[in-house]
Amino acid sequence: MAELDTSGGGKHKGGKIRSKKASTRVDLTAMVDLAFLLITFFMLTTTLSKKKAMDLAMPDNSVKTSQLPVAATRSMTILLGSHNKLEWYMGEAGKSAPTVDNYGKNGLRKALIDNGKQVAATHAAPDNFMIVLIKPSDKSTYENLVNTLDEMNITGVQSYAIVKILPVEVGDLQKNNIY
Amino acid sequence: MPRVKVARKSTFIDMTAMCDVAFLLLTFFILTAKPKVDDPTKAEVPFSSKEKLVPEDNLAIITVGNINGKSTIFYSVTGSDVRAEALKAMGAKYNVPFTADEIKKFSLLEVFGVPMNQLKQYLDLRPDERKGFPQAGIPADTTASNELGNWIYLSRQAQRGLHDKDLDIAIKGDKHQEYPIINEIIGILGKQKKFKFDLITDLRAAPKK
To answer: Which residues on chain B are in Cβ contact (under 8 Å) with A2?
Structure first.
């Protein structure tokens, strides 16, 4: 098939007539073709990249546990609004003006790091980590929530929770045109 | 002057080594192959920088995607035995008697998103006809007896009975889904005292410090 006849030909003049020896070479071209076809098929149908995930733990709200009072100045509340915008404030709702921010390196991440440092500097040693409350509004997207949780992992916030948003906070988002 | 004879060389290439390599690769791919599950919602998952791998078995995935502008919930659980058990329990709960043939078909179904009253009809279709069937999504609401909640609960029960393990739950949401539907799913899981679960994401390159 893929071989040229190189025997020269027509040389058995006078010599002994020998029975022609058949070549022991097997033509593998078709077999290789088939093997590569199957490889291509299996490569295209398999999922090579495994799925990645982030784990999320919600508090068990069915049992009442004794709650220790925490200083309001240690808490940072993040309100997730629409149009990929958020706002955050320190302390209690309504007492300090919220800051409208965006997701990303210079927005939320910077705010988290700065506030974390500030809380650490102004509180006594064992209880000087910041507590973050994430309050997604109905207009925020799933991506916003995942991004926020991801920022918690990146900035190393020790304690955070997803909390239901209050009506007064929705009103605040509306005031800033991000609801 | 004699003509210089150019020796005719054989054009035969030795394919043995190539064949060996090809079959070696083929064997590798066959052994590692896990067929792609066709995601009917085409959900675009958000990015995160966490590198936790999703378990491959003992897992239930709740997919929330957008179909014709509506949030639609799909459900899938690993293990055909768990699926069969869950379907039997669901059939008993909703008074939908499933035949042995339907249970077998369901145990091979990777992902589905039809309410209980359409499930029988959906299972009776040939696999190639199922693509055209409009999957309305699994109903989920805040009541205690919603279908998604029961699916999760009964598959967890089946997993517990068959393998003595608690089923892991993962949520695979399209990134443009609004928060209320995600909140609802978290609420449903919370009612079953399932407070730890995974959110499926794509890996983003780690941020530069």
So the answer is: 11-13
Of the partner residues A28, A38, A57, the one whose CB lies closest to the CB of residue B16: A28
Query: Are B178 and A32 within 8 A, CB to CB?
Result: no
Distance CA A133, CA A81 (A): 14
pTM, 2 dp: 0.74
What would the mean pLDDT of A110-116 be, rounded to a whole number? 82
Q: What is the mean pLDDT of chain B?
A: 80
Residue A45 lies in a domain: no
What is the span of the domain harbouring residue A104? 72-175
Percent of chain A with pLDDT over 90: 2
Give this complex's ipTM. Answer: 0.72
User: Residues B28-79: pLDDT tens digits?
Assistant: 888 887 766 667 777 777 787 777 777 777 888 888 888 777 788 888 888 8
Q: Do B10 and A149 touch (CB under 8 A)?
A: no
Chain A positions touching B46 (Cβ under 8 A) are 142-143, 146-147
- Chain A CB contacts of B202 below 8 Å: 52
User: What CATH number is associated with residue A137?
Assistant: 3.30.420.270
Q: Is residue A5 part of a domain?
A: no
In a domain, A154, yes or no: yes
